[in-house]
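Notes to self, MFS transporter:
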Amino acid sequence: MNDLKHASASLPTLKSADASVRRRSLMAGCGAHAVHDGLTDVIYVLLPIWQAQFGLSFAQIGLLRGAYAGMMAGFQLLASRAAKRWGRERLLVGGTALAGLAYLLAGQAGGLTVLLLALLLGGLGASTQHPLASSLITDTHEAGGGVKQALSQYNFSGDIGKTLIPGLIGLLLTVISWRASVTLLGVLGLAAAGLLWWLIPARSESLSSQGKASKAITGSGSAGGLRALILTGTLDSAVRMGFLTFLPFLLKDKGAGTAGIGLALTMLFVGGAFGKLLCGYLGARIGMVKTVWLTEFTTAVLIVMAVYLPFLGLMVMLPLLGLALNGTSSVLYGAVPDLAGPGKREQAFAVFYTGTIGGGALAPVLFGSLGDVTGVPIAVILLAATLLLTLPLSWLVQRGLDADARLYQGAR
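result:
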């Protein structure tokens, strides 16, 4: 009887401790996402400065940007496998520290060679963030629920980092040298690594084990559904990056100047950031398929409207377009844990992010070549048509989710 009373008394304490683990894991994952995405996109601010400083050609500029993105995309799957050997939290902290060290090295660069080496190292460090932080949040939240909502917050935090860090560095560059600014980025990366080391709770491994055990009970995943999900995410990312490439030219044709184009992109990104947050919650409420059909069909219609609307009409529409354009990604991320088999979440997230980043990298090249032949308006309309391919794919994803649910019901 005393043992029963003791167990009952300790239950609220355990629940409180688990809630603390989930909260700290979410803060760690969101913080890692914000810092890494900020360190990735701040390169766009620095490239013109490096070009002027070192006399680089556009091909060399492309090489620098491609080196970071290529390393980040190419090593995500390897990072997920390495986490099984050395530990997910340890590798996430190490990758963040490596990204910081890369910027410290870039701050000392005297030419293209050292810059290229620094960005290769930075991309390697960044490759750990997406698969490991997202799987950390997933596993620690599964036992207590709210996985999809947590992933939408994680997704939203990346856009916050993309907005704040490049913006702050842009302001700093008006008062201090680029070398000092880049060195501060390196210090930020190292400080973030130290904060992650402190913030990620020791009990996250035990909660992760509970989450994986729960997954083993609730189903074995769906390989076919996961493949359809990865293809859906790849097409969604390809259209998003392709449209972002063409949008400045659409705006220019409508009479926008440099300031107008900058304001338009800001409005689109602000809408996109909130779309990632809101659509994750919407997906948890009405389901993945309904949300994807709503956001993707809306995005396709608004992209076509962007071709024909006058400048002021397009500016008014851009926040809504950004919300739909970016919002789908949160819903898709939230389905990855449901379709991954037991113990394969890091790998599933790695493959998913590799596909989406790869699609986003290839789309501007492919649709840019198409735009040279057909003109920008036709290429943009074809982008919208490509997006409609995600609608039947999302139905295949739902079939995989339903099959996994049936297996769970049968097991019970």
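- The CA atoms of residues 283 and 290 lie 8 Å apart.
- Residues 2-215 form a domain with the Growth Hormone; Chain: A; fold (CATH 1.20.1250.20).
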